[in-house]
Amino acid sequence: MKRVTASALMVTGLGFAGAASAQSTWSLLDSCTPNSGTTQLATCTSGGKSVTVTAYAAGSGENFAKASMTEWGTNGIGVAYTNETTQSPQHAIDNNGKTELVMLNFTTATMLSALSIGWYQTDADISVLRWVGTGAPTMANYNTSNLVSSSTTQGWQLVSSADVDPSYSWSFNGGGYSSWWLISSYFGGVSGSGDDNAYGGSKLAAGNDYFKLLSFTGTTQSGGGGGGSVPEPGTLALAGLALAGIVGAKRRRAQTV
């Protein structure tokens, strides 16, 4: 067990470059060393693409505040807020007492498509949200009641929620590129919520979910920088393929995105 008392992790992933984008998987099992002079930041290195991972927690009626993260060996990372016990199972990312989550801030706009967990207890209902607003989000302005926005152009947009099997990665449609994403223990408010007491239930429920985040996968926007949401390429991608066809047979190649 390796404890990282940090509110943020700088994680790097292996990228596979393509003409339009590059796909990466960021593993949270890399060796993390706190930066000199602070206990709030740790750096994990495994390649050339970076993302800052910050932990937050909010109780009923509270706005989100920074929390700390712990790396639990090969199981992944858990989150603990101030004065929370780090005994099992509350050493994980959970929604017992407070809703815990991690915010991902990519240096280049990215579209998440999968995540994996290395441990769970009782259940693992997880939500993924994407920032579609302008500028940088301020988590201190949000709580579990106002976190999900109904707008497609501002705030946090719910991407998907699922009851995740710890033996497999959860794949989903990210819906667009953004520099900021949330991976959260389930906090309610979406279709299908209800009584769900263990993995395999057909519904989702808050209060009994405990999991450790192992990795996440996404596609990095080529030539992009920071910022809010960018729609998934459509006609631009088709135009690019047409242009590539002009170059000639010697420069044609199959691409997987």
Automatic annotation (TrEMBL):
Pfam families: PEP-CTERM
Domain of life: Bacteria
Keywords: Signal
Domain Ice-binding protein C-terminal, residue spans: 229-252
Keyword DNA repair attributed: no
Signal peptide as annotated in the record: 1-22
Membrane-spanning intervals of the chain: none
InterPro entries: Ice-binding_C, Xrt_dep_XDP1
Protein name: Ice-binding protein C-terminal domain-containing protein
Lineage: Bacteria, Pseudomonadati, Pseudomonadota, Betaproteobacteria, Burkholderiales
